[in-house]
Amino acid sequence: MNVKSKLGIISILIFSLLCSLTVSTAYVNIGNHSVTISNTGDNSSNAYAQLNGDGIIYPGDGKLPKNYEKYRNSTFQVSTGSKIKYKTSVISQGLLTNITGVKIKNSYINFGDGTKTTSNVWVVHTYKKSGWYKILISFNATFKNASFMGGKVNGTILGATKEYLVHVSTKPQLALNQISCGYNSFKNYKNKNVDYLMVKVANVGSAASKSTQIKIWYEQPNKIGAVYSKLKSYTKSATIKALKPGESTTVQIKFSIPHKYAKLWKDVLLDSLNKLNQFNKGATFYRLN
Asked: Which terminus of the chain is more exposed, N or C, with fewer CB under 10 A?
């Protein structure tokens, strides 16, 4: 996952878990500025179902068990023992956009490990064992002032249902957590000539990590992840110590950024010393400018 941001603080705390589907047709009842969407006919209401997560949550790492391919766009990953808050919600898309005034009713979440809830608000759940779990959500909802076919409507969504696949991992998961720039002199600060970067790396997984590296380089224009050959000499790396679960460290990389190159993309990458499988795939690579 490539994330664009300005040079400065980068924080990864909250992710919204959703799968966007395009709705071309829907079973709707329309009357007096009111719309009801249900699953009768073509399962249209399912397109508006979404699971929100608040905590250390990342997209899946691309490896799915056999017969789970249909979940590829609705897979995420958490660590064993992590306390995550979950809540069902409505996503605006397709025929209904700019939805406001949503009230969730009859919310149901089955976490796939024997835990079920009918709460309409945030609920905390912790997976105690690693593995793959299916999460089933369903709810009804009412809304106000949604954009619909050129006008504004209130309405109801009935029987919205969606399945997610969650990978609960008992392993180290290193993630870029914060990046800031530093200067060796007031003159460089005034002229915006960066002398070094301070990069914070956190182990958000459930096992201790081994020592590894972080690298940064100037990116080849219009080619994500490729080193710019004219500025190859600027490429720098630093070693990150082994980290216990929940532990973080900040390393200094003497990567100078002259003001004349400030607008070029820079790439920051968690890199393996020994091809270690301990990186969170959703938080290892950033582009800065």
From this structure: N
What's the count of helices (H) and strands (E) in the chain, helices before strands? 1, 20
Distance from C-alpha of 278 to C-alpha of 249, rounded to nearest angstrom: 16
Q: Is 128 helix (H, G, I), strand (E, B) or coil?
A: coil
Cβ-contact 83, 123 below 8 angstroms: no
How confident is the model over 198-214, as a mean pLDDT? 90
Residues in the chain: 289
3-state secondary structure of 201: strand
**Residue 151 in 3-state DSSP?**
strand
d(CA 191, CA 131): 52
pLDDT digits (tens, 9 = 90+) for 53-108: 988 787 776 678 888 989 988 998 888 888 999 999 999 888 788 999 999 999 99
- Beta strands at 28-31 and 34-37: parallel, antiparallel or unpaired: antiparallel
Look up residue 238 and give its two tokens.
Answer: 């630093």
The one-letter amino acid code at 110 reads N
Over the stretch 120-129, which tens digit does the pLDDT of each residue have? 999 999 999 9
**Residue 142, pLDDT score:** 94
Q: Cα–Cα distance between 18 and 154 in angstroms, integer?
A: 23
The angle subtended at Cα 288 by Cα 283 and Cα 289, nearest 5°, is 165
Q: Is 10 helix (H, G, I), strand (E, B) or coil?
A: coil
What residue type is assigned to position 200 of the chain?
Answer: K
Domains within the chain, CATH numbers bracketed: 13-169 (2.60.40.10), 174-288 (2.60.40.10)
